[in-house]
Design a protein that fits this description.
There is one protein chain. By secondary structure, this protein is an alpha+beta fold. Among the domains are: 203 residues, DNA ligase/mRNA capping enzyme (D-amino Acid Aminotransferase, Chain A, domain 1), CATH 3.30.470; 148 residues, Nucleic acid-binding proteins (OB fold (Dihydrolipoamide Acetyltransferase, E2P), Beta Barrel). Helices cover 37% and strands 22% of the residues. Strands 13, 14, 15, 16, 17, 18, 19 and 22 form an eight-stranded mixed β-sheet that branches. Strands 3, 4, 5, 6, 7 and 8 form a six-stranded mixed β-sheet that branches. Strand 6 and strand 7 form a beta hairpin. Helix 10 packs across helix 12. The model has no long low-confidence stretch (mean pLDDT 92). Bound molecules: adenosine-5'-triphosphate. The site of adenosine-5'-triphosphate (ATP) has 14 residues, from strand 1 and strand 2.
């Protein structure tokens, strides 16, 4: 197939803004395309040479493109640069310069789609030293054989500027019309696309095997399935009603969504946007290799930053440190992650996407060998409002955003690529941001693990309630302590150690070690939330809940100048919560 056919079609497509016309033009192009290269034509039409999840880009910078054009046209780079300034489009400039080229190529070979594709592929795969020169030479070679119109589109493609405005759905429409028996069958193609994220493969299957082939379209480990998303409701009553009175309520972890594809010993991770992010999380890859007891599988998880010393969840923002090309080893050490698995889409040859949610969850439970770093999303089966509300508060307390409530109905399939009512998120804002530090009393401690074995992993801290003259726990803090602090703390607290919880300390949490309320330390938290486990200001804001400080960090300020009764009061914490609350609660 001549590349000129494509260029011709592009020109027409570009000239229209009407979707129907665009679809017709595309149908024409696809019908005129030999079936064995239809996938390539589909990628090219979208300005790509592979589906998005393949981490390969042609990536030609404008400067390099200008050099190649100079070589192919025999004109000076400066002339070309001038023209690009005028046209603002390297494609148009290429068309002009190839039309008026000084250098005539004697053995000009007409360009075929196959050749253009092969050269672009070579360019995308070139790396290392000499890559720039080689890319330039390859591009110049193509341009030398191109007609002016072809040059325009080649140039736009290599520089990432081919913006024909053809949406994925338009391509599916066109494929349905050209090979799938009509537009009314688009749904089948759409599903194939949603479970493969690969328009090229869908095109090939429908062109070669027709609609029947598409109906039998198989999930392939390594091709990301487009994510299922949630709707949102703001009360447990509405949620239960919508889900038929009963649901699986899972913690909504606050991290990065990961779709893990495991093929024997090879694990690939895809982001919510279907990018391959395996290199950001080598530790997650290893964890999955170790704890997934299936040969081949596609599983979904939320990847959450955890505190290396306490194992507690950290805010989502800490995962930013993983978005880097270099120094990932160090980032892995400083910002470790845990995986909370929440769905199984494929296990050992079985496509589970059309199975109901409870079956998928069972499949997940069967193959996950739980460890501290790989867990199945915590859940309950809830059928009453009170239970759901308590579980929500518990989730918030543990550092989650809220809950994802999932339908248990027969039709609760995995709706790839869709936002629907089968999953409903519940994340009412019970959070209020903290800007001020607080001074809290150390009332208990927890033994450390790992690097902190032999010392304390976290301290249980309380605010003072002068009315009742008691200390009410408000947070557990394990962050911000240096090695020096860790050595000093047990010594400092030793003389206040007691065998039981102190009579003036109010706590539901069981500490490993209890202290007399004497030592005061300064803490900066990220936010104050309602909490079912801390008793600070219990029942004040909401019946049955207290307030907790989330993501607390020791400022390294020991308030030796303060007695326990000088610590921040419960009333002050209530005031901070109220004044900073983003949304008024009920
Ligand atoms: P949000 O900002 O609320 O995360 P969103 O648009 O990113 O919104 P939603 O559909 O609203 O996505 O929420 C679903 C997201 O919640 C998922 O993409 C996933 O990353 C995350 N999540 C955390 N825990 C779970 C869970 N148990 N089940 C499903 N998704 C979960």
């Amino acid at each position: 197939m001549r590349y000129a056919v494509i260029a011709e079609a592009y020109e027409k497509i570009e000239a229209t803004t009407k979707r129907l016309e665009m679809t017709d033009l595309l149908v024409n192009l696809l019908k005129n395309t030999p079936k064995e290269i239809i996938n390539k034509v589909v990628y090219l039409t979208q300005g790509k040479i592979y589906p998005d999840f393949v981490n390969l880009e042609i990536g030609v910078a404008e400067k390099l493109a200008i050099k190649a054009l100079a070589r192919a046209s025999g004109r000076k780079e400066s002339e070309i640069e001038e023209d690009v300034k005028k046209t603002g489009d390297i494609g148009e400039t290429a068309q002009n310069f190839i039309t008026n080229k000084k250098q005539v190529t004697f053995f000009q070979q007409p360009l075929t789609v196959q050749r253009v594709y092969e050269i672009l592929d070579k360019m995308a795969r070139t790396s290392g030293s000499g890559a720039v020169d080689l890319k330039m030479a390859l591009l110049a070679g193509l341009l030398a054989d191109a007609t002016p119109k072809e040059a325009k589109y080649i140039m736009r493609t290599v520089t990432g500027n081919l913006r024909l405005g053809i949406a994925d759905m338009t391509v599916l429409d066109a494929l349905a019309i050209a090979y799938g028996g009509g537009k009314e069958n688009r749904g089948y193609l759409e599903r194939a696309y949603n479970v493969s994220s690969d328009l090229g493969r869908v095109a090939k299957v429908v062109a070669e095997k027709g609609l029947e082939g598409v109906k039998k379209f198989e999930i392939s480990v390594g091709e990301p399935i487009r994510a299922m998303l949630c709707e949102r409701l703001s009360s447990p009553e509405e949620i239960l009603e919508k889900l038929g009175g009963k649901c699986i309520a899972e913690y909504k972890y606050d991290g990065e969504r990961i779709q893990a594809h495991k093929k024997s010993d090879e694990v690939t991770l895809f982001s919510r946007r279907l990018e391959n992010i395996s290199s950001q999380y080598p530790d997650a890859v290893e964890l999955l290799k170790k704890y997934v007891n299936a040969k081949d599988s596609i599983l979904e998880a939320e990847c959450v930053a955890i505190d290396p010393d306490t194992g507690e969840m950290r805010p989502f923002q800490e995962l930013m440190h993983r978005r880097r090309k270099y120094g990932i080893e160090k980032a892995m050490e400083e910002y470790p992650v845990s995986l909370f698995m929440f769905d199984a889409l494929y296990v050992d040859g079985k496509d589970l996407t059309l199975e109901p949610c409870p079956i998928r969850r069972q499949a997940l439970e069967k193959i996950i060998g739980e460890s501290e770093r790989v867990q199945i999303a915590k859940c309950i089966i809830a059928d009453n409002v009170k239970e759901l509300e308590m579980f929500f508060l518990e989730a918030i307390e543990e550092g989650c955003e809220g809950l994802v409530c999932k339908s248990m109905a027969k039709d609760s399939v995995y709706q790839a690529g869709a936002r629907g009512w089968l999953w409903i998120k519940y994340k009412r804002d019970y959070k209020s941001e903290m800007t001020d530090t607080v001074d809290l009393v150390v009332v208990g401690a927890f033994h450390g693990r790992g690097r902190r074995a032999g010392t304390y992993g976290a301290l249980l801290l309380a605010a003072y309630n002068p009315e009742k003259d008691v200390f009410e726990t408000v947070t557990k803090c394990g962050t911000g302590f240096t090695d020096e602090d860790l050595a000093k703390l047990p010594k400092m607290l030793q003389k206040h150690k007691i065998a039981h919880k102190h009579s003036r300390v109010q706590s539901i949490i069981e500490a490993d070690v209890w202290f007399e309320p004497v030592v005061v330390i300064e803490i900066l938290g990220a936010e104050i939330t309602l909490s079912p486990v801390h008793v600070c200001a219990i029942d004040v804001i909401r019946k049955g809940s207290g307030l907790a400080i989330r993501f607390p960090r020791f400022t390294r300020n020991y308030r030796l100048d303060k007695g326990a009764e000088d610590a921040t009061t419960v009333e002050e914490i209530v005031g901070m919560y109220r004044s900073q609350l983003k949304k008024i609660v009920e």
